[in-house]
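Shipment paperwork, digital attachment
Item: protein structure file
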Amino acid sequence: MLDTLYVAVALLGALGAGFLVTLVMVPIGGLLGAVVARGVHRALHPGQDAPFSLHLPVAVRTALFSPFVVGMDSLGEDSVPVLIVLTLLCTVASAGWTHALGNEVAGSRPQAPSQLSDIELASVRNLLEALSVEDLLHEWRWSRRRLCTDPHRAVQLRDLLLEELEQRDPAGFRAWLRDGLEQDPGQHIRGDDAAGGAAAGRPR
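Attachment content:
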């Protein structure tokens, strides 16, 4: 409805517009509108070219502004209700545009990385202390796959696993480090029975 009323008044103005408005102001207004639309699009979407479908509607609206002014002037006192209606419609349209823009900007923001909280870290640490070495080794192998789906949490979990494995078998852990963490830790980390009292004597 906003566009229909705007174009109707502009066409009325075009009928009575002079040479300056028709052949000079209209093209200049359209060009300026296209330039502004391109600049706004680049500011909101860096690195992306503005499509022609974005340039054209804006250029048409700005090109019709001069005839619209002439049309409003030709309406005289009757232009007051038209101006009021246009103002209300513009307000509603602007509110909708602002809301849509806010949602777009919010959706484009990178999400904060998912990480374990301090409470979760303490809970996981207690859980790992209760696991056997074989279970810890299984968790270590399984956590490698989580690096692709949830890297931040996976890194935190692997740090806790490294701490626990080192406490269970310090000598085997050092041998594993020398061999490289990409190797399977089961080749060096001994089971609970073989590790003896290494885990039993550590501080809790």
